[in-house]
Amino acid sequence: MRLVVVGAAGRMGRMLVKTVAETEGTTLVGAIDREGSALLGQDAGTLAGIGALGVPLTDDPLTAFARADGVLDFTMPAATVTFAGLAAQARIVHVVGTTGLSEQDFARLDAAARHAVVVQSGNMSLGINLMAALVRRVARTLGEDFDIEILEMHHRMKVDAPSGTALLLGEAAAEGRNIALKDRSVRVRDGHTGARNPGDIGFATLRGGTVVGEHSVIFAGAGERIELTHRAEDRGLFARGAVKAALWGFGKKPGRYSMADVLDIAAI
Ligand SMILES: NC(=O)C1=CN([C@@H]2O[C@H](COP(=O)(O)OP(=O)(O)OC[C@H]3O[C@@H](n4cnc5c(N)ncnc54)[C@H](OP(=O)(O)O)[C@@H]3O)[C@@H](O)[C@H]2O)C=CC1
Ligand SMILES: O=C(O)C1=N[C@H](C(=O)O)C[C@H](O)C1
User: Fold this and answer.
1) What percent of the chain has pLDDT over 90?
2) Which atom number of ligand 2 is nearest to the Cα of residue 235?
3) Binding residues for (S)-2,3,4,5-tetrahydrodipicolinate
4) Phi, psi for 102 (deg, rounded to 5)
5) Cβ distance 94 to 65 under 8 Å?
6) For residue 60, how far is its CA from the centre of ligand 1 (angstroms)?
7) How far apart are CA 4 and CA 29, in angstroms?
8) Pocket residues for ligand 2 (CB within 6 Å)?
9) Which pLDDT tens digit goes with each residue over 71-127?
10) Which residues does NAD(+) bind (predicted)?
11) Does the C-beta of 40 come closer than 6 Å to ligand 1?
12) Which pLDDT score is estimated for 265?
């Protein structure tokens, strides 16, 4: 499968370039970064630390998508919706790892998914997607006697909060309770907040250092607490998930899919 990496000079972009090069059955045919980037023209493999691949970094996605079967996109919301339109035009698989997407951004992905395969997930790891299934199940079993709080920590450079993964886990908890997350989520607490409302789903965000990604879902009841935790130790985990998603999506009919579809754990 011929793949393009957009945001190829970023933390995830470099890991994706390396993973595509190392994966049997995938070839890197394009590497895109932001217009005006000082790194344009440099070899994507050299940037990724694996030696030259003969694929220079450019700011021309249209040309790159025309010779590709799929694109791996871990960039920024504004860029991702533009790439979604271009990938739909080219009828290629679009794997979206970008987080911080708004409702309008998701509507743009859905529009693109009428013409091409879009696989979107706030977290591409097996562990988190399995944990989401467990969270849904525990939330369904316990009900509102147990308060749900979601805690996440990431490196100091992360720009969005709560993380896409925290929101994915919150959605899973809300599904288990049969409620809409947007009506019951509490993302910030400060000052005299009053007591906790039963049924709310709380979020807490920590940022610092080089933490790759840590998430806990805490079910706090009277005198007991259940905690489910995932710790990502290496970004390669997300990159391998993204490449797996692209290979899975190749040849599928247009639509928006999740990592739970790719991993075949949607029914757990
Ligand atoms: N779903 C998942 O499993 C995971 C998701 N992520 C998400 O992936 C995203 C990227 O994370 P990370 O790699 O750490 O961030 P980085 O900032 O390191 O990388 C983003 C890259 O995208 C580039 N970029 C921005 N705008 C454009 C554009 N219009 N065209 C082309 N390239 C562009 C940036 O360029 P420049 O620096 O010049 O702005 C940068 O090189 C985040 O939303 C993060 O939350 C991260 C890990 C796992
Ligand atoms: O920005 C990151 O680094 C990460 N972002 C994703 C998120 O927002 O959940 C996934 C992962 O935790 C790393």
Assistant:
1) 98
2) 13
3) 155, 164-165
4) -90, 175
5) no
6) 17
7) 6
8) 99, 122-123, 154, 158, 163-165, 213, 232
9) 999 999 999 999 999 999 999 999 999 999 999 999 999 999 999 999 999 999 999
10) 7-12, 33, 97-99, 121-124
11) no
12) 86
Taking residues 238-253, report their average pLDDT.
Answer: 98
Q: How far is CA 111 from CA 108, 145, 157, 205, 248, in A?
A: 5, 40, 31, 31, 21
C-alpha to C-alpha distance for 147 and 105, rounded to whole angstroms:
30
State in Å: Cα 6 to ligand 1 middle: 8
Which residue out of 158, 212, 217 has the highest number of ligand 2 atoms within 8 Å of its CB and is therefore the one to mutate?
Answer: 158
**CB distance 162 to 182 below 8 Å:** no
Alpha helix segments (H runs only) across 49-154:
61-66, 77-90, 103-112, 126-142
Give the DSSP H/E element, type plus range, for residue 166: helix 164-177
Active-site residue, 18 included: no
Output the pLDDT for position 166. Answer: 98
- Answer yes or no: 252 catalytic: no
Please give the distance, rounded to the nearest whole angstrom, from the Cα atom of residue 147 to the centre of ligand 1: 33
Q: How confident is the model at residue 170 (pLDDT cuts 50, 70, 90)?
A: very high
